Amino acid sequence: MIQPYYMNRELSWIKFNERVLEEAENPNVPLLEQLSFSAIYQSNLDEFMQVRIGTMLDRSEAESGKKKKDSRSGMKPREQLKAMLNEINMLLPRKDRAYFTTMDKLRTYGIVHVAFSDASPEEKIYLEQYFKREVKMLLSPIVLDKRQPFPFLKNKAIYVAVHLASKSGVRMGIVPAGSSDRIIRLGKTGRFILLEDLILHFAPQIFKNDKVLDAAVIRVTRNGAFSFESSAPDGENDFRDIMKELIRRRNKREAVRLQMNSMLDEEAMEYLLKKLKLSKKQLFLEQTPLDLSFVYQLGEFNMAPELKFPPQKPQHRTDIVHNKDMMSQIAEHDILLSYPYESISPFLRLLDEAAIDPDVASIKITLYRLASNSRVIDSLCQAAENGKDVLVLVELRARFDEENNILWAERLLDAGCTVIYGPHNMKVHSKLLLITRKTENGFENFVQVGTGNYNEKTSRIYTDLSLMTANPEIAEDARHVFDALSTDTLVKQTKRLLVAPLCLKSKIIEMIDEEIQHANNGEEAYFAAKVNSVSDKQIMDKLAEASQAGVKIELVVRGICCLKPHVEGYTDNIRIVSIVGRYLEHSRIYIAGTEHRRKVYISSADFMTRNTVHRVEVAAPLLDKTLREQAVRIVKLCLSDNVKARIGQPDGTFRLCHPLEDEDAVNAQEIQYQNASANAAQS
User: Fold this and answer.
1) Is the same domain home to 424 and 451?
2) Could you tell me if residue 69 is inside a domain?
3) What is the DSSP secondary structure assignment for residue 258, as one 8-state letter?
4) In this structure, what CATH number is given to the domain that contains residue 474?
5) Are residues 8 and 561 in contact, defined by beta-carbon separation less than 8 angstroms?
6) What is the spatial distance between Cα 243 and Cα 179, in angstroms, rounded to a whole number?
7) Among candidates 401, 403, 336, 346, which has minimal Cα distance to 375?
8) How do residues 430-473 score in pLDDT, each as one tens digit?
9) In which region does residue 593 sit, left (phi positive, over 0), alpha (psi from -120 to 50) or beta (all else)?
10) What would you report as the CA-atom Rg of the chain, rounded to the nearest whole angstrom?
11) Which entry of 113, 163, 201, 429 is annotated as an active-site residue?
């Protein structure tokens, strides 16, 4: 049944990306950081086009003539697709305006994106020489006519399309624009032109035997969605080989979007759309560069500190002794690290020490996404080479990291690790480590459970939590998880951990039911969660039921939120906050109950069906009171943010929060860093 508090998932995601765009427009954000948010907005949209638009196109074709509708909005796939494309198109002018507004302000600092027509006479001479000397010889232009088949345009690659005069039919030239450095600096200044703009200007020289009618920079996005349902190993082929083949097929899938920086004439436009099998709704005319990833290099042109966020180095915890081994410290008390405010170093030390400790018998870990130069992989390989039993689950289906993970799996195998891939019908998204060490009295175990990946790079830009504990019941549950992963089974019962798909959502529902019972008894009742996304209908319905019973519910949701708060008679007691700031909010925290009976978990799972039903996820309880209070403070701080917070509205939108006249500004991320710095300064 469709409820009035449901929001369409795809449209909710677009609203989230609009919040990212707001940071690109925010005058209080440093100028180069504004450009970074523009690039993040575009990168997010690229993935959305590949995966969600791609999926919806697949559904539209598969369900043609059927009446299957979105269970949250009642929209058919084609209706959703139309609404998605319309919403994206409506945001294009804002994206363009944000970029050019920021670039205009950067002129003061000498950073100027130059159009060829605006270059000085000296610069034009230099660019012509540069084109002839450095660019032209590397180009591979082709001319298309009735005799020449249309080329395969690579996913997200930049091309220059040139409309050439012809006596019959359309004649076009296509020039790949990725053969040289993309940013061409004009002297030692911050003035620059992009390679594709240079090629565009000199198109008549490239096709000097033809008359050029017009030209445009274009970029094609291809369908990135594919199914793993039939990708289980068959006994003859390793799963890595199957994944390699699936990736190869994905790279060749159909186009879902054509971006273009200027209009070609109608005949040429229709020709391109026909060859790419796209409708006009899938054509996006944009004024900004079609790939904004180059903006991350512009900081090299001017190092003025006010152009970037002030540096914030992850802090070292005062209660973690640097000259004492990590396992001894974990045995004494649980440790909860908070990234990026605190350093990932204690966790990396734990792995390094386990790799060389002669008493460590085994290391077991689940890997989803890794840094390019992963110290985690180095430690695991060293442990295996030292003769330890190292079991590594590598999730080969981590979207757009599949090729990297295949390479990591091969390196781990070469080092002597046992590598597994988990259940064939679901991803393993949990962040779980189990270390077993021999002692005089038998064995002791050390467990790490995280909300984010084992990735040194993202630990500096994502907010995540990492629990390290020697609790024997948590260790026993962790062992059951790894036993299940090794035998292609699922965990059905646990003592401490919540493990999806069979015993995580049911426990969350149970915790909410307990709060409903307290509310029905006239007692104060409370439930809160900090997650990336909310779309699981069963959880949303239970939260609405709790709201109607009088339970106070507070949610911090960064991205997709299919639950509308403050819908009269349904979600009156639900408050939802979304924070988009300097760091990507990634930690998941569940809180049930008031202070005297509070349960707190950290988790890898969002409140999405894909996490609660279709993935292996792990949530760990914070059994230490100090750690519970630490996690609760994080959630409360996010809920009190009035600088970067957006407040959820009954219509599913979010409005930027502003401090009242008598209120102090509360930036949750800045305060967390200040607190971490203050604690480190006490050492």
Assistant:
1) yes
2) no
3) E
4) 3.30.870.10
5) no
6) 29
7) 346
8) 999 999 999 998 999 999 999 999 999 999 999 999 999 999 99
9) left
10) 27
11) 429
What is the rounded CA–CA span in Å between residue 140 and residue 109?
Answer: 37
In a domain, 340, yes or no: yes
Q: Which domain holds residue 467?
A: 326-482
pLDDT tens across 485-498, in order?
Answer: 999 999 999 999 99
Q: Which tens digits make up the pLDDT trace of 277-329?
A: 999 999 999 999 999 999 999 999 999 999 999 999 999 998 899 899 999 99
Convert the pLDDT of each residue in 11-27 to its tens digit: 999 999 999 999 999 99
Name all contacts of 323-328 with Cβ < 8 Å and 24+ positions apart: 325/353, 325/357, 326/350, 326/353, 326/468, 327/353, 327/354, 327/357, 327/435, 327/437, 327/444, 327/446, 327/470
- Whether the CB-CB separation of 575 and 555 falls below 8 Å is answered with yes
Confirm whether 163 is a catalytic residue.
no
* CA–CA gap between residue 232 and residue 218 (Å, rounded): 38
Mean pLDDT of the chain, nearest integer: 94
Name the one residue in this structure whose structure tokens are 């760091």: 583
Question: Same domain, yes or no, for 270 and 381?
Answer: no
Q: What is the DSSP string of 165-234?
A: --SSS-EEEEEE--SS-SEEE-TTSEEEEEHHHHHHHTHHHHTTTS-EEEEEEEEEEE------TT-S--
Same domain? 535 vs 669? yes
Residue 655, both tokens: 């409005």
Structure tokens at 102: 């920021």
Residues 256-295, buried b or exposed e (16+ Cβ, 10 A)?
bbbbbbeebeeebbebbbebbebeeebbbebebbbbbebb
Residues 430 and 522 in one domain: no
Average pLDDT (652-665) is: 87
**Statement to judge: residues 540 and 633 lie in one domain:** yes
| Number of independent structural domains in the chain | 3
The encoded tokens of residue 171 equal: 């004649």
Q: What angle do CA 126, 131, 133 make, to 5 degrees?
A: 90
Distance CA 515, CA 5 (A): 21
Of the given ranges (304-308, 417-421, 585-589, 660-664), which has the lowest mean pLDDT? 660-664
Task: Note the pLDDT of residue 275.
Answer: 95
Q: What share of the chain is helix, strand, coil (3-state, %, to 5)?
A: 40, 20, 35
CA distances 383 to 237, 378, 479, 502, Å, are 28, 9, 19, 32
Three-class SS of 520-537: HCCCCCEEEEEECCECCH
